[in-house]
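Appendix B, record 7
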Amino acid sequence: MADVLAAPQQGKADSTLRTLTGISIAHWVSHFHLLVLPMLFPFLKVQLGVGYIELGFALTVFAVVSGLTQAPTGYLVDHFGARKILLGGLVLGGLALMLLGLHLSYASLVACAVLLGLANSVYHPADYAILAEHMDEARMGRAFSIHTFAGYFGGAVAPAIVAAFVAIGGGAGALIASGAIGVLIALLLVAMSIPDAGAHKKKPGAEDAPKQAVITPALMMLTALFMLLSLSVAGISNFGVVALMGGYGATYSAANIALTAFLSASAVGVLAGGFLADRTERHGQLAALCFGANAAIVLLIATTTLPGWVLTAAMTLAGFLSGVIAPSRDMLVRNAAPAGAAGRAFGIVSTGFNLGGIVSPLLFGWIMDRNAPHWVFGASVVFMVATVVLSLLTERRERAATV
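Structure tokens (predicted):
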């Protein structure tokens, strides 16, 4: 992190460190909160007397609400300021979980999912608006990579933390404690004096500058790119274990080791991708190269039965490459965002993630119900190839627009 924070003036370096640390912690909370409800499904099933379909419906509600509110939240970020919206999201998500813990019912669960969806829509527009405005230009890719890594880490440690909370205070106590983390982090960011960002911070002469449209062809292509990226890895992340067991004869232990290797390598790849993103302006080509290689690896997994250690090695490399492109993906959005509209730009394209989150469980669940586990990886290859093509087209459009 020291290389990311290096700056000519000590005061600026300290401010950059404080900003990057605070925003990364907020992103950690967002991914942690994403997994709190799924980790507590066994408890909620018993306490609420419902089935997994009803519990899954709550997650669908979350995804739909988050998807519908990403773009409007981006407007709020640019209009009212990213800092206020980010703090509000942390508090809202925290209170949603705490209230569910205090009043357990299925209606409360659905209401909690709605509020968590609203809270989740805050993080990408607000986080990226603040980072884009306050990080050093030459180290922007690495700043984005640290921010993304913090989110991955939040998801990685969520099962252990929630399990510890359950052991101490039961399921309801785990909900309350998990929610309290969001509120406490909001207070921490206030104490850290996290800076603001947004179009409301007018610079001299900005009033006379012509307004630019936010919904541009480039951002629409990037929204599709984000959806394809989500679909490319969602099948492996969510259905990889059952696919490997059902179609490749892998044991439960071996399949879990392979998936853990994939997810862990993704987090490491994000950090490596930050350095690469700062050393090139051809972010679309970098993303295409990594996902092209990734497609070849996943195609090998889809079409052959590999020995356990070879499978784990292939999944590790595939995960690493999928992580490498994340900072370049974010740089593509930042470069395509009109001046003063970073919040709206990231809000719009992040909708693609939510669309992928809505479609992927249905698609890959249908594939498994059709007893075609190889196509969990095969469909991922198709989405990866489409991602390669769209990455190149997106960069070509951006370069044509700047000529």
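Remarks on this record: The CA atoms of residues 32 and 157 lie 8 Å apart. The radius of gyration is 21 Å.
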